[in-house]
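[Q] Does anyone have a clean structure-token version of this?
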Amino acid sequence: MRLRSIGDTVLATPSLIALKRFLPDAQVDILLEDWVAPVLDGFDAVDNVVTVGRTGSSRLAAARKLRRTGYDVVFNLHGGTTGTFFAYASGAAHRIGYSHYQYKFLYNHVLSSSADYWSRPVTHSAEQQLALLGFAGVPVEEGIKSRLVVTERAMSTLEEKFSAKAEKALNEIGKFALLHPAAAFDSKQWPIANFARTAEYLAAKGVKTIAVASRNETDLLDRLREESAASIAGFNDLALPEITALASRACLFVGNDSGIAHIAAAVGTPTVVIFGSSNVDHWRPWTDAPNEIVRDIIPCQPCAGYECKEFGDARCIRNVSVRAVTAAVERVTLKTKERQEVIPAAL
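[A] Here you go.
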């Protein structure tokens, strides 16, 4: 079970990979919120994606489905009370969670902490999830990275949308970077003007820019195009599998710490991720692809990010300069070139 957001789901993929490797003949299912479930379209390390909406009736229906299926083992990879309810409602003989989960008495196997499992104080979100499996006896490795699948259908519908908007095929656009200027909180939102300058920098290097956001973030795309002298193709209507397909074709991703950044990392795209209030140790890209984190370190980091209680505005993200981001792009570009020279067949 991994309720919550896009990034949470992407970072659950190492656990699914580890479990399927260990038990290739077992039925491995995952419970996700319905809006985020398409992220795992075509993912080969899971047999079924069980979805749940946010209404009471949807949750009750999902609980009944879990009970009817008759699972032997349930891992709750996220400790929310809703996940705990589903874990218990499943009727699974073995219900595995962490000791800090609320209502932990509803689990019959409890791990103290991922720090105890890995024998180090700092662990990534992906490692925290892997630790639960390791605690139960599943062989896990620190080197298992996030991974997503690009489906033929997603690539096909992406091509149709791109051709309709850009009046040319995606493979005709040439080298492009994917920008994601949106974020869940203001403390994770790098200024749009800075993204505009970054697009201009990329254009000067011969790299075109495609930007994505959701429909309710259309104003960010409009402002980005208005403020940048570079030509930017903006999409607010891409489904999550289409964003995965688009990211897989990009030579670079630049964006805020977000689920879209984790999608790009999971398809092996070189990434530059701009951090504000978030915990870098916990949320950095979980990938072997070249990547850089850009941030301005201040004493109050990390924080929950809902509001800036220290300064009133989020200096942690506002203080990140365009030059710091373009310098990170240069480093990632160099790393990518060096990697291609060493292992060209893998790219």
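[Q] Thanks! Anything notable?
[A] The domain at 6-135 is CATH 3.40.50.2000 (Rossmann fold).
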